[in-house]
Amino acid sequence: MAANRKILSLPGDGIGPEVMTQVGRVLEWFDKRRIASFDVSEGLVGGVSFDKYGTPLTDETMKRAQECDAVLLGAVGGPKWDNLPFAQKPERGLLRLRKDMELFANLRPALVFDALIGASTLKPEVVEGLDILIIRELTGGTYFGEPRGITTLPDGTRRGVNTQVYTTPEIIRVGRVAFELARKRNNKVCSVEKANVMESGVLWREEMQKLGDTEYKDVELSHMYADNCAMQLVRNPKQFDVIVTDNLFGDLLSDCAAMLTGSLGMLPSASLGAADSSGRRKALYEPVHGSAPDIAGKGAANPLACILSMAMMLRYSFDMKEEADLVETAVKNALATGVRTADIMQPGMKRISTVEMGNVVLAEIEKLS
Ligand code: IPM
Ligand code: MN
Fold first, then answer.
1. What's the predicted TM-score (pTM) here?
2. Which of 76, 81, 95 is the best mutation target for the ligand 1 pocket, counting ligand atoms within 8 Å of the beta carbon and taking the most?
């Protein structure tokens, strides 16, 4: 059996724990079958961490995240914590993980499973066979730029500031990830910004073009303004292969792309740092969906995005391509049996719970192996 892989599981808030439990079952399956063993330990992040420790992420949990091979995260946030001061909000826990681990490249694939074509709000012919990858810069831009804050002006009114800022190295390192991944796909990169109104966008465009011209001549590079990209994503999403964009535009565009697939409940993500000398990258894997407080604890959540995030972990952190394929195919086959959680329910299909979806995925994994 291969050496232990150290995973820190941070289920978080809302539906996070429920979907993460299903991920745990799949990891146990690999363990029991002696395919791979995982050393999984748990921690708190988000509102649950605030409730216990008064902070959405303790230094101790941060340290454990730095030391493990991969972090698996469920979801953070909820109305219970909405009125907390900014620094204590559940979301700050997630943002600190991203920033302190330097997870600058966020991979958000949007893939339409055949069985789910009808679940999309778009026409079947627009989304059928869709397979695009959004790469969102994750540690810079408006999310972290300085100066930031709210100040009171002499006349008593207030001023809120955030700063959109990017440097050449920040653009190039995420650009490289985009070009490299495009080479393994359909060899097309579309770089997205607002160079028509923002200097940071002008720089982004120029640096991407330079990088393409010098290191990736074989990859087809195009540029698009972010507003047009949002429009093109719903007009004709299949024109894209890899989209690379900044933190804030990537946040918006990936939600938009998610909905092409029928449900946010289906979208996984990987957040990767730079490779060290041994080729190891820090990494965090999480579903794109939020904590869905309205359905938390009801057994109604869709665990597939979290399971697919785990599959991305197998692929990117542990180089277990076959096992990642196995999990992804099992998810595809599970959907083909006609079972659905509430979020992707369609007429004539069978509505099942979170745990039942876990059962069906495990049964399909069993069948395939
Ligand atoms: C996401 C989420 C986060 C973000 C929140 C929870 C901080 O929307 O991962 O897309 O804005 O990045
Ligand atoms: Mn988001």
1. 0.94
2. 95
